[in-house]
Amino acid sequence: MPTPVRLHRLAELSAEETAALMVREEASLDRYIEPARAIVEAVRVEGDAALARFANEFDKSAVTPETIKAGEDEFEHAFATIEPDVKAGIEFAVANIREFHTRQMPEPMWMHEVRPGAFAGERWRPIPSVALYVPRGKGCFPSVAMMTSIPAVVAGVPEIAIVTPPGPDGRVDAGTLVAARIAGVENVYKCGGAQAVAAVAYGTATVPRCGKLVGPGSPWVLAGKALLSHLIDPGTPAGPSESIVLADHTANPRLAALDLLIEAEHGADSSAFLVTESEAVAEAAIAAIPGYWAQMGAQRVEFSSAVLGSTRGGVVLAPDWDAAVAFTNTYAPEHLLIHSADPFSHLGRITDAGEILLGEHTPLTLANFVLGPNAVLPTGGHARNWSPLSVYDFLKATGIGYVTAEGYKTLAPHARRLALYEGFDAHANAIGPTREAARRP
Fold it and tell me: Are 403 and 119 in contact (CB under 8 A)?
């Protein structure tokens, strides 16, 4: 029997109980760090042999050091076995995602005349290498392969590697391989969890060392990133899935309930809340969910009921709309969907969310797969400070400056005053009489 959906009456909760609703599974990695440390060290010392051993042990997959990299035969098998409608869906999604991220690209270089004869600007270049993490344990995710690969390809990163756990057959998921190739990535490696983080942080005989790792992952991946952040840029903090469906009194509660289940079915470590000020919406949404569970597979019911029956999910009934919005902003969800007859009227009040979807025709499913904006989003409340994955994650900016003789005369006196104030003699000499003397033959 599924765990009943919990109703959290915000007005009746203590400050401690309200704070407990904000806690995600990734908030404490204490129980993962030490086991992950042993995994990381094994990969550092043993390289491919450790990756193959962990694939056998953790993924129950017959991977050998020689088969860690997906070969051409596996790509061919993937294209031969994937259903045509799935391949068509991937192609449709790739086109939309590529269009969005192409429009996101900045000018390669710009300069602006800040003062007469003084020019300042930026030049954008791709980072040299990146690893893309595509999870697999609770499903197959070609969508993540697309969301991570396409902005990296659009940005022009020269070395791109996908790391993903292998299946029991020793292969990479067919959809992931098809998505990777259509997106423009050819190098795919069979390793997941903390061992994948170690592989791309240290490099092995097969897996290249990379400067950055992006993509969502389990607490094991997050623990690996925490241990190795001194060696590899861990990218946007993207842990287990989370969402808020924010529904006002005009919302259709049955649709709100349907959308509440989207992120809740990812796993028992996910978080998903329906937040409303309407008791009628809350009660009708809760009443609708068992009917939707009857149309889902047993594992997804188990996952979503575990989430919705805990402090990491369910229905939050706020005393008024201001409190509902305040709870949402404090939570800073990865995904936010606003159900309302006029969702745009609420948009301006939302300050913190990884993405904001508006209205009953914009379910999270569309954004997760085909709409275009990136679905790799900050979790754990990090939407307060982080942005979605984008082309900017694969680019680096360099400041550019050029000053003419005319511009130098304007800028130098001000810079010299500041240099002297801060006590930097060489700075001051470089723009004072010493420089003028150095110009003379």
Answer: yes
